[in-house]
Each structure stands twice: as structure tokens, then as C-alpha cells.
Design a protein that fits this description.
Elements (H helix, E strand, L loop, with lengths): L17 H20 L4 H16 L12 H7 L13 H16 L14 H9 L1 H13 L4 H15 L20 E4 L1 H9 L4 E6 L7 H13 L3 E7 L12 H12 L3 H16 L2 E4 L15 H8 L3 E5 H9 L10 H4 L7 E6 L10 H9 L11 E6 L1
Parallel strand pairs: 1-7, 2-3, 2-5, 3-4, 5-6
Antiparallel strand pairs: 6-7
Helix pairs in contact: 1-2, 1-4, 2-4, 7-9, 9-11, 10-11
Bound molecules: 6-O-phosphono-beta-D-fructofuranose.
Catalytic activity: beta-D-fructose 6-phosphate = dihydroxyacetone + D-glyceraldehyde 3-phosphate; beta-D-fructose 1-phosphate + H2O = D-fructose + phosphate
Keywords: Hydrolase, Manganese, Metal-binding
Family: Belongs to the damage-control phosphatase family. Sugar phosphate phosphatase III subfamily.
Length: about 400
């Protein structure tokens, strides 16, 4: 087996790769969708058109010198500007794309579009959808299940919510049907980290808003309500990112949605609302959450936060890439090895949407590959993967 540190960084330019398809296909479509999502003024439309042109021509331009974080991006992107978008590490290039998208919409500017979430319409539509009504109603039945099934249900709800599919999990079966699609299942470790010690601080590093954040909040309520956590710190992005990533405004909207719902969902919302006011649930939006860097590069204050937690739960594919490192690891590389730098127990809940993979043995890998389905990148499979 090659040394783990030899694992190649995932670049954007490998022909036929998933990463290349994101740059070539997904990003131009996203710019067009954002362009049509809100009644942008002519200057914003022109800026979006310039970004589209830049992405299609495939020449990476620096951020405007007036941008508040221009210096940071100039440092991170040294030697990359003027070159092709696809010739940079996948994680870096994607992150920079979303930063430039916000620049084009005027999110950080002095004009009227300052602070307007370009993905707001998509997020709002999802939060208001009938599917969310159904998912929240399903909590009433889930509350009647035996305790261990409720615990399994809230965990799987949060996990599969990463595919924006809460309905798969909080069901009469407590979500057991979804267990078959778990590539790794360290849920026993997660529960033992919570149950076998006095309740401490749990950090939950959120991913998407809407149909992922709602079941994340249900999981947080379960931890607080059952005395499995003394306090929870919910980490979200300080500004819109990767389309649907949760921001503080999204947490507020989700809590309002929960609190206004009838039945069990309303009770969960009410408890979380009070927990927020009492300091048992804290919200953190650290700038590093939108940095184009792996967690191994995290700053000291963030490291200190995770170090003081009895458990950190990370959500989603992007957080997994940042946690493990966005590399083509030999899949059997132990998770504990690639996360040895992390300052405390950590469990990743992730549906698989990109090529990064560790902790999967050769035989399991062969069996999954034999199915012929693109199981590594399409969100059909998931993992609960951790280390104490
Ligand atoms: O919302 P998640 O689970 O973090 O997934 C984001 C994923 O979507 C992509 O941006 C594009 O499919 C991946 O590169 C990324 O890992």
C-alpha cells in the first residue's frame, strides 16, 4: 500500500473525472440559474455574464482588488490566476468559484444586493415544500417508537438528509431500511462516545440548509433532550456557499419552520429555540468554514473549539473532503490515520458525492464496484465513519 501522504490531490483536469465534469458542466449551469433566480440589476447581470464567460473560456481571474478578502485569496491562489480553472485542486477551484459567484451578485458590495443570498429562492422553496410538511408530520409517529429506534431514526435522518431526503429515515421502521446502503457504519462508536461518558459539548458541523438542516436540528434536540450532550455548538457557513450550505439565516428560518409546525416538530422547535436563548445551543459561523482548505489547516481558535468537545459530528460530502483531505487515498487507509490531526473524537455523516474514500477494505470495495453503479459520486450510498 502506498504511503498515505503520497495520495495524489484530486485535481480538476483529469479527463473523464467527476471533478472535471463539475467545472465543465455544473458551474456554467449554476451561473445561469443564479442569473435567473432574482431580478438582478443590469450591473449584476453583466458581472454574472463576465463570470460565465470566465468559466466557459476557462481562464481564472483574480478577485477584484476592492474585495474585502482580496489579500487572502491572492495568497491562496498565488500562481493560479491567469491559468485554467480546471488545473487547480478540485476543492480549491470549487471554493473559489462560489466566492466569485457571490462577488458577481454583489453579496459583499456596497449596493442594494449586499447580503442577499443568491440561493435564497431555492432554499425558501424547499423549506416551504409539501415534502417538508410530510417529513415533519412523520416525527409524530417516530416519537411513539421505542427509544433505541428513535435514536437510530434521528441519526439516519440526519445522515440521509445529506441527500436532502429526510423521508427515507424518520419512518415507522426507524430508518432501518437505509442501513443496507451504508458503506461504513460506526454508529455504535458514535453512541458510545455520547452514552459512556458524562454529557459534554458536541460540535455539529452542518452542511446543507432545508431538508438536511431540519433533521440535523432534530438530532441536536435528541442529544440535548436525552442528556447525551450538555451543550451543542452548531457550526454553519458565514455566507452562502456550495448552493445550499446552511448560514445563520437558514438556521433561523429552519427554527421558525419547526417552531410553527404542529405536533412533535413544534415541540422540537420550541425546545431548540429555548436552548438557543439559554446558551445550550450555540451557533458559530467561522470564516474558515468557507476557506478552500482542509481541516488540517484550521486556525487555533477553531481547533480549540473542537478540542473542547467530547464529540464533533461533521455532515456531508464537502466536510468529509476537508476532514480526510481531498485526495485519492488508497481506500483501505484507516480513517483514524487521515484524521489523526483532528483535536478530538470525530464522526462523519456523509452520503458519497465525490471520489474521496477511506476506511473501506478491498473486498467491500470490489463488491461495490461489481454493481457497476457510480456509487461513489451519486449519493446512493452513505457512511457513518468515526474515531474516538
Ligand atoms: O452538500 P455536500 O454533501 O457537501 O456535497 C457537496 C458536493 O457537491 C459537489 O460540489 C458537486 O457535486 C461536490 O464537489 C461536493 O463534494
Amino acid at each position: 500500500m502506498p504511503e498515505a501522504t503520497d495520495a495524489p490531490v484530486i485535481m480538476g483536469n483529469v479527463p473523464g473525472s467527476y471533478a472535471l465534469s463539475v467545472f465543465r458542466e455544473r458551474h456554467p449551469v449554476l451561473v445561469r440559474q443564479v442569473r435567473d433566480a432574482l431580478p438582478y440589476s443590469l450591473d449584476r447581470l453583466r458581472a454574472l455574464d463576465r463570470l460565465l464567460d470566465e468559466v466557459v473560456r476557462d481562464v481564472m481571474e483574480p478577485l477584484d482588488g476592492s474585495a474585502h478578502d482580496h489579500a487572502a485569496w491572492a495568497r491562496w491562489g498565488q500562481g493560479r490566476f491567469g491559468g485554467r480553472w480546471v488545473d487547480v485542486p478540485f476543492l480549491w477551484g470549487e471554493s473559489y468559484f462560489y466566492r466569485k459567484l457571490l462577488e458577481a451578485t454583489g453579496y459583499f458590495g456596497d449596493g442594494p444586493w449586499r447580503g442577499v443570498d443568491p440561493f435564497g429562492p431555492v432554499k425558501q422553496a424547499e423549506l416551504r415544500s409539501a415534502a417538508v410538511d410530510d417529513e415533519l408530520t412523520a416525527l409524530d409517529h417516530a416519537a411513539t417508537l421505542p427509544e433505541h429506534e428513535q435514536a437510530a431514526g434521528v441519526l439516519l435522518g440526519s445522515l440521509w438528509g445529506n441527500r436532502a431526503d429526510l423521508s427515507h429515515a424518520i419512518t415507522a421502521s426507524g430508518g432501518r431500511d437505509r442501513v443496507t446502503d451504508l458503506v461504513v457504519d460506526d454508529s455504535a462508536l458514535l453512541w458510545s462516545l455520547l452514552r459512556d461518558r458524562p454529557p459534554g459539548k458536541v460540535c455539529l458541523v452542518a452542511d446543507n440548509a432545508g431538508r438536511e438542516l431540519l433533521p440535523d436540528l432534530v438530532l441536536i434536540d435528541h442529544l440535548l433532550d436525552r442528556g447525551l450532550a450538555a451543550e451543542v455548538v452548531l457550526h454553519v457557513k458565514p455566507y452562502p456557499y456550495f448552493v445550499s450550505d446552511a448560514t445563520p439565516a437558514d438556521v433561523a428560518e429552519s427554527l421558525r419552520r419547526l417552531a410553527a409546525a404542529p405536533g412533535q416538530a413544534g415541540k422540537v422547535g420550541g425546545r431548540l429555540w429555548r436552548a438557543m436563548g439559554a446558551g445550550r445551543l450555540a451557533l458559530r459561523a467561522h470564516p474558515f468554514s468557507c476557506a478552500p482548505l482542509p481541516y488540517s489547516d484550521m486556525p487555533d481558535d477553531l481547533r480549540g473549539d473542537f478540542a473542547s468537545a467530547s464529540l464533533t459530528i461533521t455532515k456531508g460530502d464537502l466536510n468529509y473532503r476537508r476532514l480526510a483531505g481531498d485526495r485519492f487515498w488508497p481506500p483501505a487507509t484507516p480513517f483514524a490515520e487521515v484524521t489523526a490531526y483532528f483535536p478530538g473524537p470525530v464522526v462523519a455523516l456523509r452520503t458519497l458525492k465525490s471520489d474521496v474514500l477511506v476506511g473501506v477494505g478491498e473486498r467491500e470495495l470490489a463488491a461495490l464496484d461489481a454493481t457497476g453503479s457510480p456509487w461513489r459520486t451519486t449519493g446512493t450510498h452513505a457512511m457513518i465513519q468515526g474515531r474516538a
